[in-house]
Design goal:
The protein is of the alpha/beta class and about 500 residues long. It has three domains: about 90 residues, MurE/MurF, N-terminal domain (Udp-n-acetylmuramoylalanyl-d-glutamate--2,6- Diaminopimelate Ligase, Chain: A, domain 1, 3-Layer(aba) Sandwich), CATH 3.40.1390.10; about 230 residues, Mur-like, catalytic domain (UDP-N-acetylmuramoyl-L-alanine:D-glutamate ligase), CATH 3.40.1190; about 150 residues, Protein-Tyrosine Phosphatase, Chain A. The chain is built from 15 helices and 23 strands. The protein starts with 7 loop residues before the first helix and ends in a 7-residue tail after the last helix.
Length: about 500
């Protein structure tokens, strides 16, 4: 990419104007030196780099390595005089890093149409609905995407491991998109990203607020629901267009926040005909979902071929964004009818169709309740087996919530590994099991857990495999270990079930 580079003094002046400097900068003769790279990864440092000291696991050795590789100054909340480099001392590293990233990458979001999607559930699906719509409209060009599933910026394409990247990585993706000639980038925006300033300085052409429910409540995330909710609302101040779900809890408060911060606000709803985008007459026809939409130039009947009646809400959010951005109806119609989202409501069956495995990312109380209600409706009368776990050292409330919901709707629950990290998987599973009111098993090996669930089926059954989707890594300790995806597990063990002969007789 072709970037305009700036001297260190300009970065210092910027931080000073923003009130982020904790002490007058002392760059000395290096103040006029051009910053060739801003980086927080010591292994990526090149001569002329400005090194950013950040992260809970930061060690002075990282700064020493950056110096050896050619960094000539560093930004930190703590001085390290033993290193002997000029220090730009700041009050708030998270805010400082965001502003430095925007400066270094030449503020790329101002020259893109970035669409941000936030909410407790449905972010990935809505983002991929929008991507499919825009890919079809822009063809042969593509729309960029930054999500918990994957990232594509016109230069790089890979499986993601954070919903929203840190500022330096995020701004790099925007700059890559510009250099590759992309016009649109759709991204998921997490509450953590908004609270901790990962998206600070990003200009959103449109922002969609899907819903809100209690999640990510923990000592290291959000101390309470109010903090979580108000973190989500921050997105409106950065958006030119906001789209708000009138049907969600606290919808009026979200709408008020959007109207006070944003010039243009559209609404969407399945229950309020006064909404800018009103969806109604929702029905299943075969395996498809049909629904009618009243939305000015985008009015008409739409079709989803992706399962899950609840996905109509996500489709309405995408339609609202498209209405605000003047995307033609044909592109919206075609995109929604084709859309598939990796690891979201992926449905697989054995040869007889009597055992169905559904791979989904549902991982909090709201998404669990929505998923189970939909499955109960679409697969009435079938036995339900659920396979899931909870992550280590975060979102501790999920262990109670998911245990309660799964126990209410399932005939069997199999608890297993789900990014346990630095916690013990069995201990996490035991915490969940204390809240499960139906028969429950613990199998820490995720593949074996899916196998047990599939081979337990001796009557028409639905197996819900939740929390990981299409991900191919497990967090163990501080490392991410390559593993088969839940999709691979489901397909493998359904074939094994078939190989054993008829699973049951009707």
């Amino acid at each position: 990419m072709d970037l305009t580079l700036y001297p260190l003094s300009e970065y210092c002046d910027l931080l000073d104007k923003l009130g982020l400097l904790a002490a007058p900068p002392r760059p000395g003769p290096d103040g006029g030196r051009t910053v060739e790279l801003v980086s927080c990864n010591s292994k990526e440092v090149v001569p002329g780099a400005l090194f950013v000291c950040k992260g809970a696991h930061f060690k002075p050795e990282f700064l020493a390595e950056a110096q050896r590789r050619g960094a000539f100054a560093y930004v930190s909340e703590t001085p390290y005089p033993q290193v002997g480099l000029p220090c730009v001392l700041v009050r708030d590293m998270r805010q400082a890093m965001a502003h430095l990233a925007v400066k270094y990458y030449n503020d790329p979001s101002r020259r893109l149409k970035v669409i941000g999607v936030t909410g407790t559930k449905g972010k990935s699906t809505t983002a991929y609905y929008l991507k499919e719509i825009l890919d079809g409209w822009l063809a042969p060009e593509r729309c960029g995407v930054i999500s918990s599933i994957g990232t594509y910026d016109g230069v790089e394409e890979f499986e993601s491991h954070l919903t929203t990247p840190e500022p330096l990585e995020l701004q790099k993706h925007f700059a890559n998109a510009l250099s590759a000639g992309l016009e649109y980038v759709v991204m998921e925006v997490s509450s953590q990203a908004l609270k901790y300033h990962r998206t600070l300085g990003v200009r959103f052409a449109a922002a969609a607020f899907l819903n809100i429910g209690a999640d990510h409540i923990s000592p290291i995330e959000h101390p309470d629901f109010e903090d979580y909710f108000h973190s989500k609302l921050k997105i409106f101040a950065q958006a030119e267009l906001s789209c708000v779900n009138l049907d969600c809890d606290h919808g009026e408060e979200a709408l008020s926040a959007a109207r006070s911060a944003c010039a243009t606000v559209l609404t969407f709803s399945r229950h309020n005909p006064a909404a800018s985008v009103y969806g109604h007459d929702v029905r299943k026809v075969g395996s498809d979902i049909l629904f009618q939409v009243d939305a000015a130039q985008l009015s008409g009947q739409y079709r989803l071929t992706m399962p899950g009646l609840f996905n109509v809400d996500n489709a309405l959010a995408a339609i609202a964004v498209c209405r605000g951005l003047d995307i033609p109806r044909k592109a919206v119609l075609d995109g929604l009818s084709k859309a598939r989202v990796p690891g979201r409501m992926e449905v697989y069956s054995n040869a007889s169709g009597e055992v169905t495995a559904i791979v989904d990312y549902a991982h909090n109380r709201m998404s669990f309740e929505t998923l189970f209600r939909s499955v109960r409706q679409e697969y009435a009368g079938r036995r339900i087996v659920t396979v899931f776990g909870c992550p280590g050292k975060k979102a501790f409330d999920r262990r109670r919530d998911l245990g309660e919901v799964s126990g209410q709707y399932s005939d069997l629950v199999v608890l297993t590994e789900e990014d346990s990290g630095e916690e013990d998987t069995v201990s996490i599973c035991k915490e969940i099991a204390a809240h499960v009111a139906c028969p429950c098993q613990i199998q820490p090996n995720r593949g074996e857990a899916v196998r047990q669930a599939v081979l337990s089926c001796h009557e028409p059954s639905v197996i819900l495999i939740t929390g990981k989707g299409a991900e191919t890594r497990q967090k163990r300790g501080l490392e991410y270990i390559d593993t088969p995806s839940d999709v691979e597990y489901a397909q493998t063990f359904l074939r094994e079930l078939d190989a054993q002969g008829p699973a049951f007789s009707l």
